[in-house]
Queue: 2 jobs
Job 1
Amino acid sequence: MKVYITRKIQSKAIKHLRDKGFTVSVYKEDKPIPRNILMKNIKNVDALIPLLTDKIDKEVIDNMNKCKIIACYSVGYENIDVDYAKHKNIMVTNTPDVLTDSTADLAMTLALACSRRLFESRKLIDDGKFKHWKPDLLLGYEIKNKIFGIIGAGRIGEATAKRAYAFGAKIIYHSRSVNKKMEKELKAKKTSLNKLLKISDFISLHVPSNERTYHLLNKENLKLLKSNAVIINTARGNIIDEIELVKILKKGKIFSAGLDVYENEPKIHPELLKLKNVVLAPHIGSATIEARTAMAMLAAKNVVNVLKGKKPLTPI
Ligand code: DGY
């Protein structure tokens, strides 16, 4: 049986698939697979492992004659027409859990880099402006005793909250359901979105991208933020209206933003590149050796299970 992977992923996973007797083909270029090549190469595959940069829509799904599983190498799956795949009896899986810690680590990294003005500090040194120690040089904020607002209290939101709590923050969260564990262990309080935006010093986004979360933070509610607020986005770019975010950052209405994801990824709003009060990363939330290896292995194991007639480990 044939497995097609749309980019070179960790070799351990490719070996695992080959050891189980599958024929594995990989798109070898270091760029997202062009649509025409994808269409050509997947016609007769039994399993597809796509990346989040591949749009797997009706046309692509219809183009696969006998595919049994689309095993995403990501936790997010907004690039897949899951309903249509299910309608065609194709299983869709993702990679939850295994990237929770690495993404939460990055959310905290961005929170700290923003609040302690790490990149402005480096720039000052690079520009040869570090002449002497000063009482008011690059003052930032501590996390201790601040209100840390988590939007979306799933796995990654909870792991980020845990880290912020360990730094001494008070945790509040906005989520569709109650997270009892966070309430018990972190004394977290559930609140409305507007209240969270009004009172938080740090705001970290952890919701998936879908029609409900599109521009969840927008022109109207971004006005509620405190002047010392730090916004962190390691989820998906379109959860914040990027143009409105740029406007408030430019006007200095909030302290800073730490972004790992962008509305028109990989394009970055040109104004973001000029602003001092932002920290930018190129969508590296899960980019640790541990997480990416585990993501690749989980996708491979889902493929093995489904092609051998067993249940997948992490179905959507
Ligand atoms: C995901 O998995 O959805 C992340 O954005 C990349 O690992």
Job 2
Amino acid sequence: MKILITGGTGYIGSHTAIELINQGHDVTIVDNLINSKKTVLEQITKLTGTKPKFYHVDLTNRTATNQIFQENHFDLVIHFAGLKAVAESVEKPLLYYRNNITGTINLLEAMQANQVNNFIFSSSATVYGNPGTPKYTENLPTGQNISSPYGKTKYMIEEIMKDAAASNPNFCAIALRYFNPIGNHPSGLLGENPNGIPNNLMPIITKVYRGQISKLSVYGHDYPTPDGTCRRDYIHVVDLAKGHLAAISVLKPGFEAYNLGTGQPASVLEIIHAFEKISDQPLPHKFAPRRPGDLPEFWADPTKAIKELNWHAKLTIDDAIRDTLTFINQS
Ligand code: NAD
Ligand code: UD1
């Protein structure tokens, strides 16, 4: 298949590009490099033997986005491009709505104008808001009590996809709702390397390990969970990438959503202890107040993906930590 990956030099997009190219797909990447580096293309080339065609384009630029579709015929678009920092989205909501929503509309319009009808979107567990149960199944309501503009853009884009599918009988749309991606390619050549200060747990842990941050703050240890710290469903990014390949085979007219998670929650303290065991050194940490907006615990019910996509997460948290350490020690 000829596939356009938006945000393909980013963390999840680059890992997915590798899996797709290794399965024989013809991959083109578009990215504005706001949160990734062009050198990622060289790493993809090293790992696959193929250099993907690359467009340095911002999807909010409608003309430039259209131009990509005029120059190529794609069978499928996998849409990763977006801003994703939750706290920043609270401070700069309009930036998030413009980037994530306008960018997606430009993309969908260019697809429609060029009869490209297959679309897979990077959604998030955040679309469930606060549903009152920690085990998330796809049939729970979405869109209620979402705490950030970032999360709302994910919900809104899913609604746009549903309406686009309702208006075009040929439009095949899948939202993949990611839980908490961690780890990187086992070669250590590719990893999570955000420009700026990270917000998520594992990138912060790696900064503490490297001595760039003195201590990890554990946000809250009085939650109603087994050890008092929050629990999440951490999924290895290579498993997540493979979930996209599995989704391609079930594309059909209409809208579908799938949870991509392991189904097993782990606490912040469990992650710290696993990191200490595998790195064989203590990870300095302290307890800090709860972070506003955090839920005590949630995890995926991955049954739908297991049954319909014939996919399940195979790698463990220990694998992810080992691969993270390989990446850190090489970079
Ligand atoms: P990332 O920041 O590493 O990758 C996103 C890429 O999109 C970056 O390379 C960035 O430069 C690019 N981009 C942003 N806005 C763009 C625009 N207007 N035009 C062109 N390129 C643009 O993030 P990631 O972790 O790889 O996430 C990929 C997708 O998955 C995002 O949509 C994110 O919201 C979603 N997601 C991520 C997580 C996570 O924890 N990493 C969880 C759930 C969902
Ligand atoms: C966050 C976002 C969510 C987004 C997801 C993936 C919030 C409220 N939610 O989820 O919308 O989809 O990232 O991008 O921001 N933790 C610490 N110390 C730290 C950092 C994190 O204790 O320095 C804890 C958090 O309290 C949480 C867990 O680690 O319990 C995971 O945090 P994080 O990686 O930010 O992911 P989520 O909060 O699950």
